[in-house]
Every structure is written in C-alpha cells, then in structure tokens.
Amino acid sequence: MEFFKNICKIPYEGKDSTNPLAFKYYNPDEVVDGKKMRDIMKFALSWWHTMGGDGTDMFGCGTADKTWGENDPAARAKAKVDAAFEIMQKLSIDYFCFHDRDLSPEYGSLKDTNAQLDIVTDYIKAKQAETGLKCLWGTAKCFDHPRFMHGAGTSPSADVFAFSAAQIKKALESTVKLGGTGYVFWGGREGYETLLNTNMGLELDNMARLMKMAVEYGRSIGFKGDFYIEPKPKEPTKHQYDFDTATVLGFLRKYGLDKDFKMNIEANHATLAQHTFQHELCVARTNGAFGSIDANQGDPLLGWDTDQFPTNIYDTTMCMYEVIKAGGFTNGGLNFDAKARRGSFTPEDIFYSYIAGMDAFALGYKAASKLIADGRIDSFISDRYASWSEGIGLDIISGKADMAALEKYALAKGEVTASISSGRQELLESIVNNVIFNL
Ligand code: XUL
Ligand code: CO
C-alpha cells in the first residue's frame, strides 16, 4: 500500500527550482570530490520522530496522525515499516536508525515483547533485501517505561539493571540482524536529580559495567561496527552523566572502553551543554573519537532540546568541515534526530522538513569542501602555529627542551609580545561568508 500517493520520488531540480517537493542542493547520485553525495552524507531517517512522533508535548496531545491506518499494535508496527521504506525511497535516504520500541512496542512480558520484535525485524530484513536500504544504528529505549524512572544501568535497583541488560542484549541482536554498523548508548535517564539520594560512584561504575557487557556480547555475536555514546548534559535528568564529549572521553578512558566507543554528536545536545556543534565535533575528532552525527538544531531562544530540522547553513558548513577533516564517515552517518514542529502536522511536512535538512547539509558539504580547497583558513592556521615547526618550538615538541632550557631561552630573548600576530577573527569570518555565498 502507498501511504503518500500525492508525493512522488523527490527529484533534484537545482537551486533555481521553486518546487517545494524537489531538492535544490542535494543531488544523491552527483559525484562530488570523487564520491556520490549519498555516500558522503549517509543520511538516515529516525524511526522515533518520523514514524512515531505525533507532536505530543507537555501542553497537548498529538497533532499529526502517525497511526499509519492501524489501531492494532502489531499491524501498526508493520504499517510503519512500509511507510518508512516509502519515505526513504522517495527521499533517497539510504539508512535508518531505531530504538527497539520504535519498531515494536512492549507487550506485557519481555518474552512476548521480544517475540513481536522478531516478527517486525524479520519483516524489515525482507524489505532491506528488496530495496537495498540499510540500518545505520540501533539502540534500546531504556528510558520510557516507569521501571527506568531512576535510570537503567544507573538505577539503584539491581533488578532494573538486569532488565536493562536483557533489553540491550536483544536490541544488539536486532541491530546485528538488520546489518547496523553502529549501536548507540544515549543515557536517557542515566544521571541524577539530587545528590541527596545518589551514590554517584556506584552509578558510574555500573554504567561502565553495562557497557562492557554490551561490548563483550556484541563482539561475540559478530557486531563489528562502532559503539557510540551520545553526549547530552541534561534532559530528562537535571544532570546527565554523559554531559559532553570531554566528559565522556574521561569516562571511557577510566573504564577502558575507549577502544570500542566513539561519539554520536547531536547538534542540539552540544548547544544545551553551552558548546557549539563544531566544538563537540572537533573535540571528538582531535581525540580520535568521531563516529556519527544526530543532525538537528535547537532554537537559541529556547533552553531545551527542540530537535528541529537543521537549516542553518553556517552550522552545517562547519559541521561538514569537521567531518571532512575527520576523513568522512566510516560506520557513522547523518541521522536526522529531528521532528517537524507541532504546527507542521501534514504528511507533506515530513517531506518538506527532510528536504530542508538534506539540502542544508548538501550546501554545507559543498561550502566546507570549497573552504578547504580555498585554503585560506588552513594556511592561516598553519602560519599561526609556524613557531612550532622550528627553533625553540620544535625543541619543545621533540622533548629536547626542559624548564631550565626554556628559562635560559626566555632570559636571553627578553620581551616576547612582538612575536605574536593578530588572530584576524573578522577577516576569517568574512572568508567563510565569501565562500558560502559564492557557491
Ligand atoms: C534524545 C536523543 C535520542 C537518542 C537516541 O535527546 O537524542 O533520541 O538519539 O536514544
Ligand atoms: Co539523538
């Protein structure tokens, strides 16, 4: 059955097109820098927002119909698969991401829930064989049900920890079954509301224990992809343990998990942590931990995770600049962890919002690639650090200079203010504008 009869496969029509159901910048099969755009971007659909999110918020019920014409949960889960594959094919999106419970809900016992999930993953697997569409990553929804009110791996209840492990085991099996190249831990309620009731040390040790078990089990069933942590500083808990990339790196190294885990960086989570999206990507990249991206944007005037479709070209440009510098995606990709606004409730809005996001990233990629080819930014940065490739700078880097040698050098040299040059921030910003607006 076709769910979106009025919408055909979205064509690429170029920047002068005014057709709202056409790409202006994303041309999936265009070869740029020696690679098809679809393989550079690796766009993914998020099953939770697109197939399940109906606009429900704290102040009101849903505005969009996401029943897919079915009231029975099992029939709806199957209809969701058909609708998702139709959306992906019409939008030239090659990947999807899922939580176990987005695919199939809970049915009372874990045994029944797992059996129903198997039916849905069998169905998806068959559709994948037919269409060639792929799974980017999977995860377990260990934050929704009341049993997770105090966390999953960080719950004070060992029974909840055990339940979470069982759920994650099954989610890993489902991810492997669907050929996913990533498995995400987003610490939905892995944090605290007050330290008055919290044993932080035990909770962190337990979170690491659960991840270690997941790695061991995942590898034992043939999962060769990357495990990811998706940092977020707050929401739903006041303080989430995976606050930002730097915090997570410290955690991974403390517990010896850094060989198996990389980052899944989400733009809106970065800004919630008072960082830019680019900052988080750069911290991940410079620590060899860049993995995947949850593409969205927040609203600078709102203090929460609005999960908007990304349309800010400066942000997508600087994001793709980091992705190129990281050598591009390997197991990761650009997952639209984004939802149309509650007021954008019609089926067409699903397509308009994905087109907006995909075009913004295609433009961002082209701008970033041009910025690197242009070379002005890179050569400015390398000139700025030129003192490290000769003389005393080289001695410091090579370990030749100790404190006494540096004191001797400084005493002989005298005042050093004259050795520094302007940071030229405004000039550099104008170069970025020049490149973006000359595409
Ligand atoms: C929540 C969030 C999640 C993760 C997956 O803020 O981003 O959807 O991406 O659990
Ligand atoms: Co996310």
Q: How do you describe this structure in short?
A:
This protein has 439 residues and is of the alpha/beta class. Helix content is 46%, strand content 10%. The radius of gyration is 24 Å and the shape is globular.
- Average pLDDT figure: 98
Radius of gyration: 24 Å
Going across the biggest sheet, name each strand in turn. Answer: 3-4-5-6-8-10-11-12
Largest sheet: 8 strands, parallel, barrel
Q: How would you sum up the global shape?
A: globular
Structural class by sheet pairing and helices: alpha/beta
Number of strands: 12
Could you explain how this protein is built, in words?
There is one protein chain. The chain has 439 residues and is an alpha/beta fold. It is 46% helix and 10% strand. The chain has 16 helices and 12 strands. The protein has helices at residues 37-41, 47-52, 73-91, 100-103, 110-131, 158-177, 200-220, 245-254, 267-272, 277-286, 313-325, 347-374, 376-384, 391-397, 403-413, 425-436; strands spanning 31-32, 35-36, 43-46, 95-99, 134-139, 182-185, 191-192, 226-229, 239-240, 261-266, 290-294, 334-336. The chain has an 8-stranded parallel beta barrel, surrounded by 4 helices. Strands 1-2 form a two-stranded antiparallel ribbon. Strands 7-9 form a two-stranded antiparallel sheet. Helix 3 runs parallel beside helix 5 (110-131) and helix 12 (347-374) packs across helix 16. It is globular. It starts with 30 loop residues before the first strand and ends with a helix. The model has no long low-confidence stretch (mean pLDDT 98). The protein binds D-xylulose and cobalt (II) ion. Residues 186, 230, 266, 294, 337 line the site of cobalt (II) ion. Residues 186, 230, 266, 294, 337 line the site of cobalt (II) ion (CO).
